[in-house]
Structures are given as C-alpha cells and as structure tokens.
Amino acid sequence: MKQVVVVGIVLARTNYGEADRILTVLTRDHGKVRLVAKGVRKIKSKMAGGIELFSVNDLTYTAGKGDLGTLISSRLKRNYGNIVTDIQRTMYAYEVLKSFHKITEDAAEPEYFDLLNLCLQALDEAVPIQNIEVWLAVHLLSIGGHTPDLAHDTQGQALAESKCYMFDVEHMTFAQKDQGAYQSQHIKLLRLALRASSPQKLSLVQVAQPVGTSVNALCRQMLRLHGYHA
Q: pTM of whole model > 0.90?
C-alpha cells in the first residue's frame, strides 16, 4: 500500500481494543484523517511519543479502503509542553481541539492547521488567553467567509470614532446606536486582531481590560452563531 507522510496535530484519541488507539489528526496538506495506531498503548511502543496532544508530529501512514488509515511511524516534531503546567491553559487547549475537530472537514484548508499550530504555540508561550481567543475568533470567521464588516455600519456609512454602536450579529455589521456598547476602541481591537499574524503580535498592543473582555464576549457570540464552538 502507498505510504503517506504528513505533519499533523492530534485532535482526539480513543482507546481501541487492548492496546490500540484511534486518532483523529489535522494535517496541513491532507485535511483531517483518522488513523489506527496499533499497539501504541504498550509500554515499549515506539510510536507513543509521536501522537501526544498539544504537539506537532511527523506521521507516516497507509490509507485503508475506508476512511481509517494505519499509522506506521510517528516522530515528535514540536511539543508544546508548557501548556499542561497551567490548568486554565490546559482546559482552554482542550476546548480549542474540540472546536477544530467539529469545524474542520476531511478536506480542511491548510489555514486551519496553521491557525491551530499558532494557537498552541501562543498558549505554550503564556500569551494571555483573552488575546488568543480574540485573535483565533476573527481568523476562524475570516476563513469561513464570515469576517465582520469593520469599515462600515448597517447604513453603509464609515464607522466613526465619535459614534457608539451595537453589533448586528446576523449581518456581521455594526449599527449606530446612542449608548451602544461598542465604540472606536472595540472596533480598533478587532481590526488589529484581524491584521495580526499571530496572537503574540496582538499582545504587543495595550488594551484596557474592559474593552478586551467586551470584544472577547462579542467574538464568542459570533462564533456560536456560525457554529464554531464545540
């Protein structure tokens, strides 16, 4: 059988039989694949170290007749081990894996792998979780074609620094409203997050805590509407 070599991140692992595991892996070039890792739960298994969660791995497998391939070899490429030293980061990392498991299809675009990798790297480097959440949200929405309009309001007018707005989640657009919850600093943070190439870059910008909290809540609302939460 033809062997396939990929770089992948394990999204989920399920024990199977006495010593095997079924893996769901997000790869950059082959989308999401399901693999059986035979004997990997045995103490002397050479593949166990290359299928850990919160890590990037070099994997070689053979494709099966159905949707389940067989893992032949695995090698740890990069381990984001600092994540598990903090319970809050660990729980959020599990939440992220579950979300990517849900939203990615078998032919997922390479951008999903890149986003997940950057997210895990940021968690490993202790970037504030709130910054990671905002950055990840706007980029997930962008890949899915749901980027919020950060230039014009519902009337087609340019967003103004002196105005207050509410957010029309259904149309992904701000609407002018006196005493609205969102002002120029909220919109600026969303713009910066969309332009930032990584959560680390976004963290270079100083943001008032109430603004960050408000934008984070809005991002979660947008993600839920478009089915991005696990």
A: yes
